[in-house]
Design goal:
Strand 9 and strand 10 form a beta hairpin. This protein folds into 2 domains: 217 residues, Rossmann fold, CATH 3.40.50.300; 30 residues, no CATH class. The chain contains 11 helices and 10 strands. The termini are far apart. It is α/β, with parallel strands linked by helices and 274 residues long. Helix 3 packs across helix 4 and helix 5 packs parallel to helix 6. Bound molecules: adenosine-5'-triphosphate. The site of adenosine-5'-triphosphate has 12 residues, from strand 2 and helix 1.
C-alpha cells in the first residue's frame, strides 16, 4: 500500500476542476489541510463546497487536478481514502427510532470495533449524551442529534473528518454545542475540513480559513492574516440619537436623587398609596 504516511498534509488539493454539464463549478482549486488542524472552507450557496467534499470523500470524480486524503489519492486509492475518513453532512444521519446508545453501538459493530460497549459509553460521556443515552433519538433536540452524529463519526478513529455545514438549521444554543464538539475533535488530533456559510463559525473554530468564490480559492490564511487584507481600522465620528435610557437619566438626574417637576407630577398621590 502506498501513501497513508502520517507525515505530509492531511488533505492536499491541486488544480481541481469539476463541471456539471455547462456549469463550471470548480475551476482550479488549490489548498492543503495540515494534520491535526481545523480548516474552514467558506463560500456562498452554490459556491462548490459540497462538490469538493464529495470529491475528497470519493463520492464524486473530478474532471481534472489532484486530491489526496491521508496521503492516499482519491481517484487511485478510494478504498484507503474511505478507511481514513468520516463524513458528517448537513442533515444528521442518525436513526430516530433507535436510542442514542443503540445508534452508536450499531456503528461500532458495523466498523467492527472490538469493545463496542465501552467505546459507545466513552463517546456518550464525551459528547454530554449520557443522560439521554437510552432515549429514542426522535426526542432529541437538533443540537443533540448533530452531537450524536459527530460522535458516531469518531467510531473507528478516522484521522480525517469532513463536517459539511454541521450547524445549518440549528438555533444559537445548538450551534454552540456543536462548536464545543468540534473543538473536542481537534483536541484529539483529528484533522477537520469544515464547510460553512457562517463566518462566525469559521472565526470560532478554524486554524485556517479559505474562501471559495467563482470556482477558485480567492483567500487562504489564518484569521489574523485574512484581517490584514483590509485597510487598518479607522476611527469614525458617528452622530448618535439619544436612547430612552439617555432621556430617562437626563430627566431623573444621573443619581436619581433630584426629582424634576415632571417626575414629581407622575409620583403616586397619597390616595393611590393607601
Ligand atoms: P450550499 O452552501 O448551498 O450547500 P455548495 O457551496 O455546497 O452550496 P454545491 O452543492 O457544491 O455548492 O453546488 C455547486 C453548484 O453546482 C450549484 O450551482 C449546484 O446547483 C450545482 N450542482 C451541484 N450538484 C449538481 C448536480 N448533481 N447536477 C447539476 N448541478 C449540480
Amino acid at each position: 500500500m502506498t501513501g497513508g504516511q502520517s507525515r505530509g498534509p492531511a488533505i492536499h488539493v491541486g488544480a481541481l476542476e469539476r463541471s456539471y454539464g455547462e456549469l463550471r463549478v470548480l475551476r482550479g482549486v488549490d489548498f492543503e489541510v495540515a494534520r491535526g488542524s481545523i480548516f474552514a472552507l467558506l463560500g456562498a450557496n452554490g459556491a462548490g463546497k459540497t462538490t469538493i467534499v464529495k470529491i475528497l470523500s470519493t463520492l464524486l470524480r473530478s474532471d481534472a487536478g489532484t486530491a489526496t486524503v491521508n496521503g492516499f489519492d482519491v481517484a487511485m486509492q478510494p478504498a484507503e481514502v474511505r478507511e481514513s475518513i468520516s463524513l458528517t453532512g448537513q442533515f444528521a444521519a442518525v436513526d430516530e427510532i433507535l436510542t442514542g446508545r443503540e445508534n452508536l453501538l450499531l456503528m461500532a459493530r458495523l466498523r467492527r470495533v472490538k469493545d463496542a460497549g465501552r467505546t459507545t459509553d466513552g463517546l456518550l460521556a464525551r459528547f454530554q449524551l449520557t443522560d439521554a443515552a437510552r432515549r429514542r433519538v426522535v426526542t432529541y433536540s437538533g443540537g443533540m442529534r448533530r452531537r450524536l452524529d459527530i460522535a458516531m463519526s469518531l467510531i473507528g478513529n478516522p484521522p480525517v473528518i469532513f463536517l459539511d455545514e454541521p450547524t445549518t438549521g440549528l438555533d444559537p444554543q445548538g450551534r454552540i454545542e456543536v462548536w464545543n464538539s468540534v473543538k473536542e475533535l481537534a483536541g484529539q488530533g483529528v484533522s477537520v475540513l469544515l464547510t460553512t456559510q457562517y463566518l462566525g463559525e469559521a472565526e470560532q473554530l478554524a486554524d485556517r480559513i479559505a474562501i471559495l468564490h467563482d470556482g477558485r480559492i480567492i483567500a487562504n490564511g489564518t484569521l489574523a492574516e485574512l484581517k490584514q487584507l483590509l485597510p487598518p481600522a479607522k476611527v469614525e465620528y458617528v452622530e448618535k440619537q439619544p436612547s430612552l435610557e439617555d432621556v430617562f437619566l437626563a430627566v431623573v438626574g444621573a443619581t436619581g436623587q433630584t426629582p424634576t417637576p415632571a417626575t414629581e407630577a407622575s409620583a403616586p398621590t397619597s390616595k393611590e398609596q393607601r
